[in-house]
From TrEMBL:
PANTHER family: P450, PUTATIVE (EUROFUNG)-RELATED, P450, PUTATIVE (EUROFUNG)-RELATED-RELATED
UniProt key word Iron: yes
Assigned keywords, A-Z: Heme, Iron, Metal-binding, Monooxygenase, Oxidoreductase
Cofactor list: heme
Domain of life, source organism: Eukaryota
The protein's name in its UniProt record: Cytochrome P450
GO molecular function, one term: iron ion binding
Keyword Signal part of the UniProt annotation: no
Pfam families with a match to the protein in the record: p450 (PF00067)
Listed InterPro entries: Cyt_P450, Cyt_P450_CS, Cyt_P450_E_grp-I, Cyt_P450_sf, Cytochrome_P450_fung
Pathway membership, UniProt: Secondary metabolite biosynthesis
Family designation: Belongs to the cytochrome P450 family.
Binding site for heme: 87
């Protein structure tokens, strides 16, 4: 089974015993924040009360009249962890994702793949299982947006 390695550590060992909202946490318990898993509807990022139909790819759920909807929790509030062990790479990660996605979308039309008969191939939306999951490979289509975009893309090839 193929699984990408992760830079980040999610699990923490709780040294003294403690109590949180009436739940007893014995000493040395392993604590893992439930950010989200591909099978879960209760994890923070798949909370149906906050994100209806949480497994649907639906970026518009974060928008209201073309702007960020303040009623919808920003997923970055949970995706990078919490408290003193929050991900120290979160600003690098967010900026890198932003510039990478913006660069791709400014130069390519991204869409579903077609087969040899010209029929649209629906993506599978399947994930590798695991604590940190990633999508299984799927076919899609990248088409340069213009002749100018082709020049920009070619200028980046070494
Ligand atoms: C989208 C990309 C990333 C996501 C979603 C992510 C998410 C996380 C999460 C959930 C944790 C655990 C926080 C906790 O226990 O509360 C974590 C920890 C960590 N991350 Fe990231 N991370 C990302 C990128 C990066 C990058 C680019 C770096 C380094 C350049 C990095 C370095 C670390 C380190 C060193 C820790 C352990 C921090 C500690 O235990 O004190 N991460 N990350």
């Amino acid at each position: 089974m193929q699984q990408r390695p992760s830079l980040c550590s999610l699990e923490h060992c709780f040294l003294p015993h403690d109590e949180y909202r009436g739940y007893r946490i014995p000493a040395n318990s392993v604590i893992i924040g439930t950010h989200g898993t591909e099978y879960s509807f209760s994890a923070i990022l798949h909370d149906e009360t906050m994100y209806p139909n949480p497994h649907k790819f639906d970026p518009e759920r974060f928008l209201l009249n073309g702007k960020l909807n303040p009623e919808i929790r920003d997923s970055a509030e949970a995706a990078f962890g919490f408290g003193k062990r929050i991900c120290p790479g979160r600003h690098v990660a967010s900026s890198t994702l932003w510039i990478t996605i913006a660069s791709v979308l400014s130069t390519f039309n991204v869409g579903k793949a077609t087969n040899e008969d010209g029929e649209v191939v629906e993506p599978t939306y399947e994930y590798f299982p695991g604590l940190v999951s990633s999508p299984r490979p799927f076919h899609c289509s990248f088409t340069p947006r213009s002749a100018q975009a082709v020049k920009v893309i070619q200028s980046t090839a070494q």
